[in-house]
């Protein structure tokens, strides 16, 4: 009996290693409200990510909504339909108008030319996503924003520890937000962060995170409760001691998938990201099964892949009839959403698990392949031992 394989699996330390942290929390009775673990983890995470001004949050969605509040955005915000629903939801919860434009076929990130074409007198900001941890064209987006006087908030939920040559990708734009959710590369059960460009901006974010309080009796803004609790912060501190090994394992499995799927007819590999958070592939017409047939073939083998990001946000019931939204032509996003499938990629995998996944792709279609000129066999020399 094969074990179930999931697209992601949370990074978890040994339970015994976490008990002393819990004992500290029980002894101090400080459960939340920016306690000692919060302070320590906020600094340690900023150091690890090599950013200066980081504010922890209780999740990425609250962080995103708070970033939009901090910048006092109103009107239209240009964003991508090819992302997790929370990106657009954060706009709607701020009564902003999402303007959906198409993505680049190589990176699956917002296409700068499409952004520029969608700008109107009501446009106030751009909300790009570093999809799958692949950096956006930050230079082009920054240029467009400067020319049109727009704010840029990066949804960097996938971009933990992603660099771009000169440093962390999180330093770009007016703010970046991270998600530390259980399904992400680095988790604090639930969690998130805002990376601000200046200390002044971080101070404003920190006020909004805590109901707008600046001292016991003074409330200067209509803030929210975005605080990370002490258990999550303590857990984050312990997680930091394991993240490098986890990223290393991800890189190994990514390389194996990439090596073995390269050149398989009908399979398109996607850009590699620094943190190897996801392994999306596109199932093109030359492959003998449709994307959904392959998805079902995986399920029969207890392999639970995910079709991130399908459906497009613009086709979700909550959006497709929305008056307060603008829909531009989305040929690339539509093509990708119909063909994408994300393979299991996480540190709990074994080489044997990866072989199981590869076998479904390379062998499942063997019946319809009988008439094919090039059989989809993989050279035995390339097979790694489990
Ligand atoms: C996960 C995710 C979010 C939301 O983060 P939470 O921590 O789950 O609230 C936002 N945007 C993107 C692109 C995501 O993948």
UniProtKB/TrEMBL annotation:
Gene3D superfamilies: Type I PLP-dependent aspartate aminotransferase-like (Major domain). This is Aminotransferase class I/II-fold pyridoxal phosphate-dependent enzyme. GO terms for molecular function: pyridoxal phosphate binding; transaminase activity. It comes from the Bacteria. Pfam families: DegT_DnrJ_EryC1 (PF01041). SUPFAM superfamilies: PLP-dependent transferases. The active site is at 184 (proton acceptor). Keywords: Aminotransferase, Pyridoxal phosphate, Transferase. GO terms for biological process: polysaccharide biosynthetic process. The modification N6-(pyridoxal phosphate)lysine is found at residue 184. The keyword Transferase applies. InterPro entries: DegT/StrS_aminotransferase, PyrdxlP-dep_Trfase, PyrdxlP-dep_Trfase_major. Belongs to the DegT/DnrJ/EryC1 family. PANTHER family: PROTEIN RV3402C, TRANSAMINASE.
């Amino acid at each position: 009996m094969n074990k179930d394989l999931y697209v992601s699996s949370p990074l978890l330390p040994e339970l015994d290693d976490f008990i002393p942290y819990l004992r500290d929390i029980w002894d101090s009775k400080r459960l939340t409200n920016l306690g000692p673990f919060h302070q320590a983890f906020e600094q340690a995470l900023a150091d690890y990510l090599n950013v200066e001004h980081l504010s922890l949050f209780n999740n990425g969605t609250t962080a995103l909504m708070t970033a939009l509040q901090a910048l006092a955005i109103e009107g239209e915000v240009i964003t991508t339909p090819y992302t997790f629903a929370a990106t657009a939801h954060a706009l709607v919860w701020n009564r902003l108008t999402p303007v959906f434009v198409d993505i680049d076929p190589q990176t699956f990130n917002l296409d700068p030319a499409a952004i520029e074409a969608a700008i109107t007198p009501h446009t106030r900001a751009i909300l790009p996503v570093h999809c799958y941890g692949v950096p956006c064209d930050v230079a082009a987006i920054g240029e467009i924003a400067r020319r049109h006087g727009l704010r840029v908030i990066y949804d960097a939920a996938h971009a933990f520890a992603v660099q771009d040559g000169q440093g962390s990708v999180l330093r770009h734009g007016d703010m970046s937000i991270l998600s530390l959710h259980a399904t992400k590369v680095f988790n604090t059960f639930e969690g998130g962060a805002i990376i601000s460009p200046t200390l002044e901006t971080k101070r404003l974010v920190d006020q909004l995170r805590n109901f707008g309080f600046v001292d016991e009796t003074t409330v200067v803004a209509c803030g929210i409760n975005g605080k990370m609790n002490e258990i999550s912060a303590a857990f984050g501190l312990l997680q930091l001691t394991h993240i490098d090994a986890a990223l290393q394992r991800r890189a190994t499995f990514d390389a194996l998938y990439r090596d073995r799927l390269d050149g398989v007819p009908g399979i398109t590999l996607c850009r590699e990201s620094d943190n190897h958070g996801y392994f999306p592939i596109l199932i093109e017409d030359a492959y003998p099964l449709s994307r959904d047939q392959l998805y079902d073939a995986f399920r029969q083998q207890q392999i639970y892949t995910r079709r991130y990001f399908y459906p497009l946000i613009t086709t979700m019931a909550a959006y497709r009839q929305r008056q307060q939204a603008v829909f531009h032509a989305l040929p690339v996003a539509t093509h990708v959403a119909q063909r994408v499938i994300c393979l299991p990629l996480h540190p709990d995998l074994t080489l044997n698990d990866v072989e199981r996944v590869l076998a479904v792709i390379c062998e499942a279609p063997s019946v319809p392949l009988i008439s094919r000129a090039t059989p989809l066999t993989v050279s035995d020399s390339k097979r790694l031992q489990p």
